[in-house]
Structure formats: C-alpha cells, structure tokens
Amino acid sequence: MKSKSSNTIKLFVFFTFILLTLISEYSAAQVLDKIIVKVDNEIIMKSELEMNYLQVLASQENVSDPAKLKCQVLETLIINKLLIAKAEIDSVTVEKAQVDEQLDRRMAYFISQIGSEEKLVAMYNKSIDDLKKELRSQVKEQLIIQKMQDNITKDLKVTPGEVKRFFNEIPKDSLPYFSTEAEIGQIVVIPKISKEKKNETREQLERIKAKILEGGDFCKMAGIFSEDPGSAKNCGELGFFKRGELVPEYEGAALKLKPGELSGIVESEYGFHLIQMIARRGNEFNTRHILIKPTSSSQDMTTAVMFLDSLRTAILNDSISFEKAAKKFSEDKSTNSTGGLFIDQETGSSHIPMEKLDPVTFFLVDTMKVGSITKPIPFNMEDGTEALKIVYYKSKTPPHQANLEDDYQKIQKATLAEKKNNAVNKWFDKNKGEVFIDIDEDFKDCELMITQ
Does the keyword rRNA-binding apply (predicted)? Predict the structure, then answer.
C-alpha cells in the first residue's frame, strides 16, 4: 500500500485516531445506492462510502483534494472488510458482553448529546431497544475489526525519537490550541454483597423456576422479573450466539440443556440467571433467561464507605499514592489500570478538556481544589450496579498550543497510531491475495492498493 506520510495524513492521524460510525440513516434519495466493492462475502455500498467520507470530511479543515480523500476512505473500508473476512476464516469472535457494553456506551453518549432518552426516541421515531438492534451488527463488526487490528499491532511501540520526529513534521501553523484541561481520577468500590442477599436472590429465582415448571409462562416471568433490559421485553430471549460469545458461566450451563429445558440457578458477573434453551443451529444456540441482580444491604454500604474513608485518609497522609491505591483496590475496569485516571479516548492522554467532562463530574470538580480528594460518593455504574467512589483532582493545565512538554502523551498516541496504521496496511498487502476482491469501475481512478 502507498505511504501515508503526507502532512494531510499526518494531521488526519493526529486528530482522528478512531473513527466509529454512530447512528447512520442515509437517504436513498441522496445516493443512488449500489454495491461498489466485494471482499469475499463482505460488501461495501456506495451509501456507506459517502456516509463515511462525509464524517471524515467534517472532521478536517482545508481539504485540498476531496477526491483523493474519498479514495483514502474507500481504502480504509476495504481494509476493514478484509479484516472481517479474515476474522471469519480464523474464527476470531467477540463476546456478547463486549457488544452489549459498547451499545450501552453508544446510547449513553447519544442521550448525553441530544439531552434525554425521550428526545433521542422522538428524533429517530424508534425505541432505544430498536436503535440498539439496528446498531448491534455494526458494533459487533467494529469490535471484530479492532480485535484483528490489535492482533496485528500488539507488539508495536514508539521511541521518544520517533515521537519527536512525528511532532516536528506537523506544520507549526497547524498545531492545535488546547483549552483548559484537567487530570481527574477515581477509586471505585462495589459493596460486597452478603451471602444472605445472594441466597435471597437464588431463592427468588428458584420460586420463579417452580412456577414455570408448574405451567407458568417464561415470557411473562421475564417481563416482570428480569433485570436485563435488553432481553426482558423480548421474553428474555438473547438470539443466536456462537460458542465463546457469551460469558463462560452462562454458556457452560446453557450448552448442557436440551431445547425447552431449564437450567439450575447460574451465577455470573452480571448476577443470577435462570436459563432456558430455545434451539440449536449448528455451532450456534439461542437461549432466553431471567436475570436478577442481588442488591447490597445498608451494612454492606456502610462497610464500603468505611473502607474508602480509610483509604482516602491513607492517601492524604502520603501512606500510599492515589495511583497505587487505584490499581490495587479500584473495581472500575476502565480506570484501575491507569492508576484511577480518566483517559481521553481520542488522544490517549490523562489531560482531558473540561468541556469533555460529563456534567456531574464537571460540576463536582468545579467545587474542588487541585490536589483534593472527595469523601465517598454513592453512584450507579453503567450496568446499574450500586457503587461508591472517591474522586481525585490531580492537576489543571491552562489553555496552550500543543507542545512536546505538556502534550507528550497525546503526540505519542498519534505517533503510535500512524505506526499501527502502516502495519495494518502492510498486513493488507500481504493478505489481500487470500480473498476475492472486486471494485466497481467507477473507482478505477483511485490508486487503490487492490489494483493489480
């Protein structure tokens, strides 16, 4: 594949590390749709190219050659389709839990941008569940692409010299001006649920199971009792999944069942499940379940508050650093590996623009002094789990133009992104001959890497 070292692509990599498609409804009246690329069983529609091109175009300024940019976007789409095709050949999959998590994140983002769930539903004239169903295959595809890219680039690193060279090649008049940024961290503790509460949940599901065995309707029971919002409205049904796509505890119990048979009570990281096998189809199976999450007692919450209070005191007394405490004790998977610090997903930096903070965090930090730590705060995690956290306001950076001293993490991330991009391009060049690729004549002027 051709080198992508021009200033335009440098800036493209610097400003757009990951381009994820959000909600897309492209009118057929705007584009006379047709298949423009085939990659084995994967296809690229003209509307898909146009939609992605407009998204990239909107993220850039002063595009000197729109036609060339569109060809570059098409290249990226073709690479992605080959990654998906190879994933199928190599049996690379992602778990349903990962897809669900990403869907929830997308919905939360859309709702925060639009203002409320009701406004989002009104805008698209579709329920949240319907929107998730439409996005599911797209999100799953993106996760598979990411997994394949990670497999290709997992061993890549960049040196300080490479970072400096990358930065120096960006035109000085094109360096971004960053607004006020803050470093914010958190330590999250989930109250330990007592055996009594777990037993209560088990017993509740056992009673539900007994009613179903006596002739009760599983569908109605799921609608009334299940705490899985994605499936409760659909009689608890999850749809067909392959082996390895569901959490091990659930899948292990489900695969022992015959169609129509009920499982025992199964515990997973999500709570307790009552599972019924619906059907098998080759290597796929379809189940439905009733999920109930045990809740923590007031004593469980009090114990967690006392623990976080003592941890906060130890940090303030310099007995342990916040970062070390977060790595050791925090139960938030998204931040414990970073020492509790929030990371800007676009830049890879712990310095986050104030305008990117969610409103709750923004107003909380606005009342804090740099270096301070809050007392334990109760909140609900994204999946509804009750939890507690302490928040650390580590630093504040005034507005400034990008430079290596203040923004090394961001520039390092951009440098690595370019290196990974080049590695994926090389992988494509090596593997493109393994699958059938056909490109529409309308794009023969694009100097694509497929051209023989």
Answer: no
